[in-house]
Design goal:
Elements: H1 28-33, H2 40-59, H3 70-92, H4 96-116
Length: 120
């Protein structure tokens, strides 16, 4: 009869640890520049002084003139001209395809002129 060998106990698990964190100090001088006071009223006064100093820069910008409506004018001219020509052809020879062409052209022109093309 074969006698089984005695079982050996499991080895103790190895303890895993993280290595010590090493941080590189990049902005050592920045901590010295930060104001030591955390007074909100002082910060607001300083922000207001900065805004006053920068207002002169904004006042020198040129005034914007109102835009003209050339895009809308061009859209209406093209739409009326093309739809009247296609409508006249539809009157002369009634056709479902010509009516669908009017609808498709109007939709495409509206999308192209009012959505795709930027103001000019």
């Amino acid at each position: 009869m074969v006698v089984p060998a005695p079982l050996e106990p499991d080895p103790s698990p190895q303890k895993l640890t993280l290595k010590e964190a090493e941080f590189e100090k990049v902005n050592e001088g920045a901590a010295q520049r930060v104001q030591s006071s955390n007074d909100p009223m002082e910060m607001l006064r300083q922000n207001r002084a900065n805004e006053k100093a920068s207002e002169t820069v904004y006042d020198q910008s040129p005034k914007l003139v109102p835009r003209s409506y050339r895009r809308i004018r061009d859209y209406v001219i093209i739409l009326v001209t093309a739809d009247s020509i296609m409508g006249f052809l539809l009157f002369l020879m009634p056709n479902v395809i010509l009516f669908a062409g009017i609808l498709l052209f109007t939709a495409a022109l509206t999308w192209g002129m009012l959505v795709v093309i930027d103001d000019y």
